[in-house]
Amino acid sequence: MKKLIAHRGNIEGPSNNDNHPQHIAGAIALGYDVEVDIWFIDNKFFFGHDCPQYEISIDFINQYIDNILYHCKNLSCFIELLDRRAHCFWHDKDDYALTNENYIIVYPTKDIPTSFQSIYMLLPEYIMCYDGKNIEDVMHRNLHGFQTNFPHSHICSDYVKILSEINLEGIKE
Question: Which residues contact 169 (CB under 8 A, 6 or more apart)?
Answer without folding.
Answer: 1, 147
